[in-house]
Structures are given as C-alpha cells and as structure tokens.
Amino acid sequence: MIRLEQVTFRYDDMVMEFDAHFPNGSLTAIIGPSGSGKSTLLNLIAGFEAPAAGRIVINGRDMAGLPPPSRPISMIFQDNNVFAHLDVWQNVAIGVAPSLNLTPTQRDSVGEALQQVGIAALRHRKPGEISGGERQRIAIARALLRDRPVLLLDEPFAALGPGLRNDMLDLVIGLQRARGTTVLMVSHQPEDARYAASHTAFMRDGRIVALRPTKEFFAAHDISGLAEYLGGLE
Questions:
Q1: pTM of structure
Q2: Cα–Cα distance measured from residue 38 to residue 16, given in angstroms and rounded to the nearest whole number
Q3: Where are the domains of the chain?
Q4: What distance in Å separates the CA atoms of residue 195 and residue 110, rounded to the nearest whole number?
Q5: Is the predicted pLDDT of residue 217 greater than 70, yes or no?
Q6: Statement: residue 209 has pLDDT above 70
Q7: Which of 40, 99, 118, 148 is the most exposed, having the fewest neighbouring CB atoms within 10 Å of its CB?
C-alpha cells in the first residue's frame, strides 16, 4: 500500500496537499487539468521531490530520507530515455548493469524481460530503427528487471495513437496482474482510466479531490470539478 499522510509541497505560490492511500496490487489512473499536481505527486512518491511536511509510506516503511534508487519503485516517463548508440538488448541490460558486464543470471533475466514485453526479435536493433511504442517497451522491460513492487507511469504513452496506446495499456495490465504490482498512472486521457484502471483519482489545484473504484468514479455526480474537466476535453 502507498499512503500519503498529510503531505504538503510548495511550488511557487501554490501549496499542494495530499492525503490518500492506494491499495496494494491496484492500478490507479490519476487524471486532472494541467498544473493540478499529478506529476508532482509521482515525483514525491519516487523521491525526486521532498515534501515540506507529512509522511509517504510504502508497504509500511516511511520513505523519509530515502533517495530514489533506494525506494521500492520503478518509474517510466513520456521520454523513454533510450540510448541511441546501444541496441535494444543493451538498452534493457543497462538498467541492471550500467557497465553492461552481466552475470549469466542477469543475461537470462534480460532475455526473459524482452520476451515478456514482445521485443525479443528486435534485440539487435538500435532505437532509431524501431517505433515509439517499441521504445516504450524497452522502458517497461527495464522496470520488469528491477522487479519493484510499485510502478509509476508519468504519461509514458501520451504520444502514441489510441490503438497503440491500448496495446501498451494491455501490456501494463497483464504484467501488473501477473506480479501484483501497485501501479499509479498519470494520464490526460480519461479513456485510459476507463480502459485499464481499477481505481481512478481526480486532481485539481494540488489536491486529490476524489479516489474511487473506476466504475463508481465515472458514475458519480458529486466530484467537484470533474464534469467541467471532462466536458472541456470533448
């Protein structure tokens, strides 16, 4: 479980306040207007930002003072951070061995990760020779290798068309269910929440206005600002 207990973060003149818990093994979509604090929320959980007050607790452990590499988290961004001079296999392997000097066990793990995300046949290709969706599969394969209980997705599929985006969501759903990973996914597409998420959160003005099971969330009429937000996207 991820718990945010009266977490406060200040950005310029804006004060963000988070108080929520995300169940173990859930896939939660986080939607809301630009500037509402969605990416900041993920960065606080990952340790890239530090709260002014409050606690962030993951699986019973307070994250205070822990740098990002020490947290039980993998994070995937819209910029998939692949290295143009490395092939697909190397781009995945560098996630566990920056020197690329892998043990036999690590080599086997890289091969399994490539197979799981469907890019084993592309292992010798360079990033410039594959599609945007295939480059995002590299990032997902790296996350598999890290095998952390929490996966944070900061709009990694935003640049993809609807069909390819759903393919990526199917991949995340399958891996999440197989491993019991807790996933938080920021998206500007409410359709992503309806398609993939067990829970959906709506953010506005630096606060989580609502966090509910997805079917209940989209059937609700009492979530302040949600109707206006959804209407503005049409």
A1: 0.90
A2: 10
A3: 1-70+187-234
A4: 29
A5: yes
A6: yes
A7: 99
